[in-house]
Amino acid sequence: MSVHGESVPMTSRRAGPLKGVAEVPGDKSISHRALILGALSVGETKVTGLLEGQDVLDTAKAMRAFGAEVTRHGEGSWSVHGVGVGGFAEPSDVIDCGNSGTGVRLIMGTMATSPITATFTGDASLRKRPMGRVTDPLSLFGARAYGRSGGRLPMTIVGAADPVPVRYVVPVPSAQVKSAVLLAGLNAPGETVVIEKEPTRDHSERMLKGFGATLRFEEVEEGRAIILTGRPELLPQAVAVPRDPSSAAFPVCAALIVDGSEILVPGVSQNPTRNGLYVTLVEMGANIAFENPREEGGEPVADLRVRFSGDLKGIEVPEERAASMIDEYPILSVVAAYAEGTTVMRGVKELRVKESDRIDAMARGLEACGVKIEEDEDTLIVHGMGAGGVPGGATCKTHIDHRIAMSFLVLGLAAKNAVSVDDGSPIATSFPVFEDLMAGLGAEIARG
Ligand code: S3P
To answer: Domain total for the chain?
Structure first.
């Protein structure tokens, strides 16, 4: 099954070198947050560079359902007339967040401290994913959640009429959980404290500050505490969304493994909570130059000049780096297949509860393409076959997961035989221009 109900098989094959400039779309995490915080501000928030992937479009639709006015003015250019903190109206219908875990979890958090009820659902992938990780802390505010067994969607959240602030230690490294609690804390009186044992992406903290919320940070026994003062008046902003480092990963990794390639990927975030893949690739011997470092939209960015790297070495990825590259393990495992030696990825069990079980999806597809792997609950190990060494020649299952689809299509660009995916339609959730962008670089990726 696909995002729109119709599967779109796709095939990639080895062709000439990749050349040119790859301008990837806006950051998905930041795009969701810009719409949500815009909806919580009184007045007009202007967003440029918004990712127009289905996940973000579903969040835009949801913000309208809660009473905000959300308007598209042109490509990536949107405005949001918000209703203020605590101003959400009760939606008259079910909120369908499609494929987006970030969308549903952040929106549940946002509405959980208002006296309204909303029912959430999503596609077959999202309906399998655990929501207890957000409804547990939301219940501490006084919200109630009624879902399917295992805390699955569809789920109804009855928002707290008299929310109380909470102190919550996030038990899994998850920016979605952290953000859901912070967003709920906005409409609770007093101070809400969220404690992270390990740092995860900090876009919510950065953007909340940008919209005028009061946040402070303290080192406490359990980790790093983020202390939010409730009931702020959020002020509308102009948000320039930087390009998505998780999307940039696909052309970057493709250029590293396709013989003779040289591409430029401008404006890629080097936020230390997001750049773990790039640090890892450099450790593997990737030829990447980080040119013109600067700030864009409140994020550190650089232009990446990437050249084919025929002597990549397998490495052990430090476990503590996992959160900063959690979405990039699928594409890293593809690069690892073209490295010499073994790449060991430990501490990655969170991958099992993403859009698909990404350890299983990558393991099965790589095996089908002739790559030796090892896995356990929390680990993926890839035995590299060297530059151009992957046999390919298989059809890989994508399990309604955009990153799995794009990873195997990149694998096929350097494999001895073409690689197919059963369904490329989920790519539209995060990277709707993937096919055109890759074709512009000279990649052979075709439907069918
Ligand atoms: C995201 C957080 C991560 C990541 C997801 C986006 C976010 O999920 O995998 O793609 O925008 O907060 P977790 O918080 O579940 O780790």
So the answer is: 2
Q: How many CB atoms lie within 10 A of CB 386?
A: 14
CATH number for position 47:
3.65.10.10
For ligand 1, the distance from its centroid to the CA atom of residue 113, given in whole angstroms, is 22
Q: Is 33's C-beta closer than 6 angstroms to any atom of ligand 1?
A: no
Measured distance CA(338)–CA(388) in Å, rounded: 6
Say whether both 21 and 48 belong to one domain: no
pLDDT, tens digit only, all 448 positions of the chain: 344 578 999 999 999 999 999 999 999 999 999 999 999 999 999 999 999 999 999 999 999 999 999 999 999 999 999 999 999 999 999 999 999 999 999 999 999 999 999 999 999 999 999 999 999 999 999 999 999 999 999 999 999 999 999 999 999 999 999 999 999 999 999 999 999 999 999 999 999 999 999 999 999 999 999 999 999 999 999 999 999 999 999 999 999 999 999 999 999 999 999 999 999 999 999 999 999 999 987 889 999 999 999 999 999 999 999 999 999 999 999 999 999 999 999 999 999 999 999 999 999 999 999 999 999 999 999 999 999 999 999 999 999 999 999 999 999 999 999 999 999 999 999 999 999 999 999 999 999 9
Q: How far is the CA of 107 from the centre of ligand 1 (A)?
A: 14
Give Rg (Cα) of the chain: 21
Q: Which of 123, 202, 327, 401 is catalytic?
A: 327
Domain interval for residue 249: 10-26+243-447
Burial class for 217, CB neighbours closer than 10 Å (0-12, 13-18, 19+): exposed
Q: Is 29 in the pocket of ligand 1 (CB under 6 A)?
A: yes
Q: Is 327 a catalytic residue?
A: yes
Strand pairing category for 262-269 and 19-21: parallel
238 inside domain: no
Distance from the alpha carbon of residue 174 to the mean position of ligand 1, in angstroms: 6
pTM for this one? 0.98
